[in-house]
């Protein structure tokens, strides 16, 4: 440094030399004006750098800004972002704030939207686990030995393998694990479309993940309920029950807190003192898994205090429907009349003192409405009835049975079950009963107990008794969906546009079936909902090799005996007997029919997610001839695959964020930059794969396969079919996107070009009634707060249940025999063995599943590695110090995790935020290795009314929250720290 | 002691600018002279990857693990900025309007510029002296710290390898090893410019 000044003076003296250097190439430099040099143009100068602010401003430069979102992310919110791009690199993202109020002056607007994950996706996008080139495994699976291969080689080898597998085992031995990460654009459409055309199996894993609200399905006939999140603001009594929006639904949570300023009371029912509970007027720390008892106590109070809505219950619920006491079955027309209909139930009319067919009954094919007219159905009472065979039986209303059931749940009895003080229960019950517009928010995470269905049925009962379901500012919110109709067509139809729709219908349905559909509609014998549901199911039955992940796991994972140990004593029959009956009767489809030989993932991380992962890897994964992960990121599943193909990330391909109803805007994801490295979008990847398979099939002159026994699969035509008859090429992903938009009335005619500029557009309508979309409000045309379920409440459509009503009594023989015909409280079975701690999990603030789990910035905001939260009293008793590593063990083995002391957790509970990658644990084995994931046999039931398999509506799942563990102190902390597999 | 020629300085400095400044889609072939400082040849090919770049250096992050700004590493940031801008102006140039003057790439670009001036005027030993002084006082004053920061964060090793090479290169340029003429060239011979 000492030569600084002297050198500078000498250098200054040679300034004139530079005058002759005018012709030299310059990088990041311009000729300075003071030299008199230059190319004739005014010299560019910089702002004076007199302070740090000037420097800061200079650093924030970019080339262009694109509109984007996190398209195929399994996040229940949707947010539009400005994506800043500099020389082909996304340098940052920033929230937009362009949302309007649904009803200005009545409800707040949807701004701001976004969260900490979205704000740092670029860290994931350019992070160390980002995949940029195709890789082929060269060592053992999971050995970490990879060879970089070209796309041509990867596609060629995968295609050959798939054809070989199809020839040996059938096309339905190939599984596309759809996963929770999906969008409604070409990415997911390409994935589904390819496997539909290949004849592969697409299992739904909504329930297996623990996200499907089967309690809602049993009650309403569908699991997805709720309108826009600004409706929360209109409630006067908000109950957040098994949900933590401050963490898992950050962009919408503000409506809850704004509702408090609007006079609403906020009650949070959660064993954990959650981030949402900190804002509550009333926090109810219910004992783990006892929610059903609490709900039934509230229901009892509502009814006993006369705060129930009798007229609503007469019309909308099954409380007046008659049940035979000798069988536990509904009284049916074929009981009363020889040759009568099995699906016509009865109510007792108080005016005429007579039994009359219950409006809404599934069998009333010419009366699909719930209008009572002059009827005055009794909610309670019992009568003797003479049957067609001359036998006399006693019948009572569902309401009567329910009153008897509720009698068990006095405040005192409930206090013992739930561990709550009776005064707290009374305060909650009175608040609920006295409210005009009670609303319950229930997340997907409310479905992870073995008995979650009972809990949610009981929660809904409280609302139904109040007449709150479907009322503005009240009711049940568990996530409704808009319908992007063009997405479904892009996933299946053979031609683009309306022609594809017609082609699909004429291909799938016979002329007789088409005629029946048309006449049912014209004659108003069925509601639009019923016709659509029947069409969709018929199409699914004829065209798709669809099943559910739990069925695959139960049959192929090698876990039957292990599950039996914990749940066979819970019902009259062992689980296997229930499952065998369901599969023998065709209630629950099981594909692959023979073996699972190939597994494609991409929208998920199956080896991180699946319970009893060790068994999955030992019995299913090792049996695979081919495992492919198509993913922007190297996950634990990818680490154990044969090929990993780098998929384009969120900002690298066009997409539509899946259309949750919380925010009534379509969120477009523009391709802000070209895919990083050699990544490709999924539409192109599967296009290339289809092309190569078609070439191989033609070279071999392969005969058509039988699909999964439903239809012919001609691999010689797979590329023709995938490409819509060559309408779209490998690079036409934006054209596919436009096709999806064109066929989606909800998109309101939006074009890709417009969406590139705006990023969002308000939905113009809710779209067709389809599997996901159960909004049931065709009158909503993009204006006003979106209320769901109006067709039932306002238009008096019958509900898609056996009774056509909100149904609390399930008379399926399995349910009657299993003691679950009515909502009830059952204790949580001890999964994993009789150990003192219940291990429960919740979604994290710092990641959406495992996608951000290894991101340094997010790790810095929590504890940097997997951590289990324990109550201080437990930590003391176990002689563990805060921050120590501990061993968690049960019948299935053990894992190691660091412990954090926290009073937010009840004693006896081991609590973790989920989705850590197994490679972040010692020996790459996480808590999932010892989590049994119980499967409730009732959920395999079928054959009656709405209790029958429907893709993503009714299917078995896998429960994690009943897991029990013991905890041991680890003596050698240093060794434990060294052994930890922290990323 | 092996001499470093101005043309070596220019080509190597420009190559570093290319790979460190949001590397372009079209790779720039590494100059032969780079081999003197690069210990791992694989790093040259890997330098095309942009994925690590943003995570380590990008200005979009609240605080990049390895900032590429000279002012970040010194106690007198504004004095540093003024000094480096003055250096540029003395030689008739300023940085582009959207560039921080003390960014490593800008400083390397200026180093390349000075080297080319030296190539045009081989008899002017003072230009060589300026070249040495600039390398030592500016990019060379913080490149070693960048290497140490990279050692903590660059799991792939690509950029660590490159930065180590650059640090050695700057040490050589600033350490009196640059000579004004190639041994086989005389004043007045034609000078090849890139």
Would you mind describing this structure in some detail?
The complex is a heterodimer of chains A (about 1000) and B (about 190). By secondary structure, chain A is of the alpha/beta class. Helix content of chain A is about 30%, strand content about 15%. Chain A folds into six domains: about 5-45, no CATH class; about 65-115, no CATH class; about 135-205 and about 505-535 and about 555-760, 3-Layer(aba) Sandwich (Rossmann fold), CATH 3.40.50; about 215-305 and about 410-475, Dimethylsulfoxide Reductase, domain 2; about 310-405 and about 800-815, no CATH class; about 835-930 and about 955-980, Barwin-like endoglucanases, CATH 2.40.40. Chain A has a six-stranded mixed β-sheet with strand order 6-5-22-21-20-7. Chain A has a six-stranded mixed β-sheet with strand order 27-29-28-31-26-30. A five-stranded parallel β-sheet of chain A has the order 11-10-9-17-18, with helices on both faces. Chain B has about 190 residues and is mainly α. Chain B has one domain (about 5-175): TorD-like, CATH 1.10.3480. The chains are: A alpha/beta (about 1000), B mainly alpha (about 190). At the A-B interface, helix 1, strand 1, helix 2 and strand 4 of A face helix 3, helix 4, strand 1, helix 5 and helix 6 of B. Strand 1 (about 30) of chain A pairs antiparallel with strand 1 (about 95) of chain B.
Overview in brief:
The complex is a heterodimer of chains A (983) and B (194). With 983 residues, chain A is α/β, with parallel strands linked by helices.
């Amino acid at each position: 440094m000492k030569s600084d000044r002297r050198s500078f003076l000498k250098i200054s003296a040679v300034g004139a030399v530079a005058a002759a250097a005018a012709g030299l190439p310059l990088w990041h430099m311009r000729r300075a004006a003071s030299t008199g040099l230059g190319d004739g143009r005014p010299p560019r100068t910089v702002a004076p750098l007199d302070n740090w602010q000037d420097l800061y401003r200079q650093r924030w430069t970019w080339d262009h800004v694109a509109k984007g979102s996190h398209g195929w992310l399994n996040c229940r919110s949707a947010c539009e972002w400005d994506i800043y791009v500099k020389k082909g690199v996304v340098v940052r993202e920033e929230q937009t704030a362009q949302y309007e109020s649904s009803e200005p002056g009545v409800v707040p607007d949807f701004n701001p939207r976004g969260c900490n994950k979205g704000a740092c996706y670029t860290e994931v996008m350019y992070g160390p686990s980002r995949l940029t080139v195709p890789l082929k495994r060269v060592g053992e699976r999971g050995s970490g030995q990879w060879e970089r291969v070209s796309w041509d080689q990867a596609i060629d080898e995968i295609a050959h393998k798939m054809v070989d597998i199809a020839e040996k085992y059938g096309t339905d031995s190939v599984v596309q694990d759809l996963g929770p990460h999906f969008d409604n654009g070409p990415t997911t459409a390409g994935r589904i479309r390819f496997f539909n055309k290949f004849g592969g199996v697409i299992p739904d894993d909504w329930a297996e993940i623990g996200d499907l609200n089967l309690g809602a399905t049993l009650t309403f006939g569908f699991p997805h309920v709720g309108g826009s999140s600004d409706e929360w603001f209109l409630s006067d009594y908000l109950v957040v029950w098994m949900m933590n929006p401050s963490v898992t639904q950050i962009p919408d949570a503000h409506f809850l807190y704004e509702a408090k300023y609007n006079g609403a009371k906020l009650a949070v029912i959660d064993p954990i003192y959650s981030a949402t509970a900190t804002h509550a007027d009333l926090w109810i720390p219910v004992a783990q898994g006892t929610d059903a008892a609490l709900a039934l106590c509230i229901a009892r109070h509502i009814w006993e205090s006369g705060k129930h809505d009798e007229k609503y219950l007469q019309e909308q619920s099954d409380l007046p429907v008659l049940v035979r006491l000798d069988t536990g079955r509904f009284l049916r027309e074929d009981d009363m009349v020889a040759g009568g209909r099995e699906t016509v139930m009865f109510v007792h009319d108080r005016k005429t003192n007579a039994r009359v067919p219950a409006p809404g009954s599934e069998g009333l094919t010419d009366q699909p409405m719930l209008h009572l007219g002059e009827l005055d159905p009794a909610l309670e009472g019992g009568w003797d009835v003479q049957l067609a065979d001359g036998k006399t039986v006693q019948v009572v209303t569902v309401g009567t049975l329910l009153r008897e059931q509720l009698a068990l749940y006095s405040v005192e009895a409930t206090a013992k079950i739930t561990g709550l003080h009776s005064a707290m229960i009374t305060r909650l019950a009175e608040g609920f009963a006295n409210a005009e517009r009670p609303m319950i928010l229930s997340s997907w995470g409310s479905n992870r107990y073995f008995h979650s269905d009972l809990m949610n049925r009981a929660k809904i009962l409280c609302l139904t008794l109040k007449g709150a379901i479907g009322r503005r500012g009240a009711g049940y919110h568990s996530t409704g969906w808009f319908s992007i109709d063009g997405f479904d067509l892009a996933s299946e139809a053979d031609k683009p546009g309306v022609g594809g729709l017609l082609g699909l219908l004429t291909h799938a349905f016979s002329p007789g079936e088409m005629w029946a559909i048309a006449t049912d509609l014209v004659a108003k014998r069925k509601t639009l909902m019923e016709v659509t549901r029947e069409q969709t199911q018929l199409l699914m039955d004829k065209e798709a090799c669809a099943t559910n992940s739990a069925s695959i796991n139960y049959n192929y994972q090698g876990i039957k005996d292990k599950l039996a140990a914990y749940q066979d004593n819970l019902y009259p029959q062992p689980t296997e007997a229930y499952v065998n009956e369901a599969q023998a009767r065709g209630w629950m489809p099981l594909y692959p029919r023979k073996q699972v030989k190939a597994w494609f993932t991409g929208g998920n991380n199956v080896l991180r997610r699946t319970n009893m992962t060790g068994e999955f890897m030992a019995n299913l994964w090792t049996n695979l001839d081919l495992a492919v992960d198509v993913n922007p990121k190297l996950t634990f599943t990818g680490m154990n695959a044969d090929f990993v193909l780098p998929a384009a990330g969120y900002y690298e391909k066009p997409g539509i964020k899946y259309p949750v109803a919380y925010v009534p805007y379509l969120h477009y994801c523009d391709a802000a930059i070209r895919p990083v490295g050699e990544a490709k979008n999924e539409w192109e990847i599967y296009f290339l794969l289809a092309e190569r398979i078609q070439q191989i099939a033609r070279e071999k002159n392969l005969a058509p396969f039988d699909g999964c026994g439903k239809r012919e699969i001609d691999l010689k035509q797979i590329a023709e079919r995938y490409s819509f008859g060559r309408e779209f090429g490998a690079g036409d992903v934006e054209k596919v996107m436009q096709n999806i938009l064109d066929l989606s009335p909800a998109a309101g005619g939006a074009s890709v070009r417009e969406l590139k500029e705006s990023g969002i557009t308000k939905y113009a309508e809710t779209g067709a009634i389809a599997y996901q979309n159960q909004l049931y409000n065709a009158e909503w045309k993009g204006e006003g707060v979106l209320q769901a379920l109006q067709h039932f409440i306002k238009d008096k459509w019958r509900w898609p249940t056996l009774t056509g009503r909100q149904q609390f009594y399930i008379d399926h023989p399995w349910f009657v025999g299993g003691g679950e015909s009515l909502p009830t409280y059952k204790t949580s079975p001890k999964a994993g063995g009789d150990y003192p701690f219940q291990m429960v999990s919740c979604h994290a603030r710092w990641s959406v599943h495992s996608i951000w789990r290894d991101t340094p910035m997010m790790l810095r905001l929590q504890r940097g590695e997997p951590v289990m939260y324990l109550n201080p009293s437990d930590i003391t008793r176990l002689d563990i110090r805060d921050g120590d590593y501990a061993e968690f063990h049960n019948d299935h083995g053990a894992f190691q995790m660091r412990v954090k002391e926290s009073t937010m957790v009840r004693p006896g509970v081991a609590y973790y935020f989920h989705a850590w990658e197994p490679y972040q644990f010692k020996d790459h084995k996480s808590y999932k290795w010892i989590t049994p994931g119980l499967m409730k046999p009732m959920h395999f039931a079928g054959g009656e009314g709405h209790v029958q398999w429907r893709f993503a509506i009714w299917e078995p799942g896998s429960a994690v929250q009943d897991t029990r563990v013991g905890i041991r102190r680890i003596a050698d902390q240093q060794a434990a720290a060294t052994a930890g597999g922290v990323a | 002691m092996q001499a470093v020629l101005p043309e070596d300085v220019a080509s190597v400095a420009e190559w570093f600018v290319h790979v460190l400044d949001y590397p372009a889609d079209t790779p720039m072939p590494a100059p032969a002279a780079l081999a003197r400082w690069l210990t791992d040849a694989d790093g040259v090919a890997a330098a095309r990857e942009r994925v690590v770049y943003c995570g380590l250096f990008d200005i979009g992050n609240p605080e990049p693990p390895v900032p590429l700004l000279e002012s970040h590493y010194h106690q007198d940031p504004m004095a540093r900025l003024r000094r480096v801008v003055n250096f540029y102006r003395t030689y008739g140039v300023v940085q582009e309007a959207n560039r921080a003057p003390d960014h490593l790439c800008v400083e390397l670009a200026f180093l390349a510029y000075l080297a080319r001036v030296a190539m045009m005027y081989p008899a002017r030993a003072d230009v060589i002296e300026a070249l040495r002084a600039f390398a030592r006082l500016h990019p060379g004053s913080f490149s070693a710290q960048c290497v140490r920061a990279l050692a903590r964060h660059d799991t792939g090793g690509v950029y660590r390898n490159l930065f180590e090479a650059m640090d050695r290169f700057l040490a050589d340029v600033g350490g009196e090893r640059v000579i004004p003429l190639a041994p086989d060239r005389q004043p007045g011979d034609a000078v090849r410019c890139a």
